[in-house]
Amino acid sequence: DIQMTQSPSTLSASVGDRVTITCRASQSISNWLAWYQQKPGKAPNLLIYKASSLESGVPSRFSGSGSGTEFTLTISSLQPDDFATYYCQQYNSYSTTFGQGTKLEIK
Amino acid sequence: EVQLVESGGGLVKPGGYLRLSCAASGFTFSSYSMNWVRQAPGKGLEWVSSISSTSSYIYYADSVKGRFTISRDNAKNSLFLQMNSLRAEDTAVYYCARYNNAFDYWGQGTLVTVSS
Question: What integer is the mean pLDDT of A58-68?
Answer without folding.
Answer: 98
